Amino acid sequence: MILTAVLALFGFGITPSTAATPITVAAAIGRQDSSTASVTGYVVGQPTATSTVVRSNYPNDYALALADSASQTSTSAMLYVQIPTAFRASYGLQSNPSLLGKQITVTGTLAAYFSHPGLKDATAFTGGGGSDPGDPPTPGDYYAPVAGKTGAALKSGLHTLIANQTKLTYDQVWNALKDTDQDPANTSNVILLYSGRSQSKTTNGGGVNDWNREHVWAKSHGDFGTATGPGTDIHHLRPEDVSVNGARGNLDFDNGGTAVAECPGCTADTDSFAPRAAVRGDVARMILYMAVRYDGGDGFANLEPNNSVNNGSAPAIGKLTVLKAWAAADPPDAFEKRRNEVIYTTYQHNRNPFIDHPEYIASIWP
């Protein structure tokens, strides 16, 4: 027993023999007797109150909810799991949003959490690779149709995948951006893309120092305006300071230029703009997403990156060589990955493939 306790303390997942055979979530809910058990279930969100479980916009890595079905929405059929510090990096939903819908097994004490049937003081977490067959596809399954494809065939296959989306109105974009671009350190704020400033969600508008909706693929490059489709696609719409948005205007992307006011690390000249280094890869992946998603087949222009600046109203944006270099130098981070997940699970139900698979860039644009 001493050896078991020591191993469990150091995270080796060894538990008393009473926990050897996993039980269902339903059984765990009915057995809130402070005994030790291993429970197998599907991750269905994060509990934030006794009767509230969120499936996106996770506030932290402290808890998750399990159910016997990945499609369960009734909190009465969920087990609230407290996540100890040692397991948060691997099983916290803010850090690992793709765990939603995955099957895991947790070992711990069957005791109330959030005044709700729960599991506390966990000593082991395992799994996370499998999903309920009836749940929406995981990112791995999402790309199964393009497995083995390269070049033009890969681009065409990805277009077919990501064109299956829910389209937002331009008004709906306001609230969506308050979710997708939420500051992880202050849930009342959003992070402005180019300037990096954290600003109150409520200060959206058109006034000085408000934030508004920046089209990363400038809407005049293809003349799509704010039409439902490319004009409202939140994979490339981001919050930005009104004056910084104006300074970028419809400039192409390239290195060089002089400093941009209110935008530390940004530069611009007469024909190009460069954001701060921390989001240059984000910008590149958004531009390349747009080139794959909008190919001229759905009533909008065929958007393509090229190696020019001064593209004007042509359905093109540059410079491709610079964008590729930016993508390589600034790989996807936790903020960008979470944003992609929230867009997929809550809003458009499609993904930016270059966040999930950065290697696709070189295959399509060698």
UniProtKB/TrEMBL annotation:
Taxonomic lineage from the root: Bacteria, Bacillati, Actinomycetota, Actinomycetes, Propionibacteriales
InterPro entries, sorted: Endonuclease-I, His-Me_finger_sf, YhcR_N
Record key words, sorted: Hydrolase, Nuclease, Signal
Name the record gives this protein: Ribonuclease
SUPFAM superfamilies in the record: His-Me finger endonucleases (SSF54060)
Keyword Cell wall biogenesis/degradation: no
GO molecular-function terms, A-Z: hydrolase activity; nuclease activity
Database matches in Pfam families: DUF6359 (PF19886), Endonuclease_1 (PF04231)
Signal sequence, start to end: 1-19
Domain Endonuclease YhcR N-terminal: 23-125
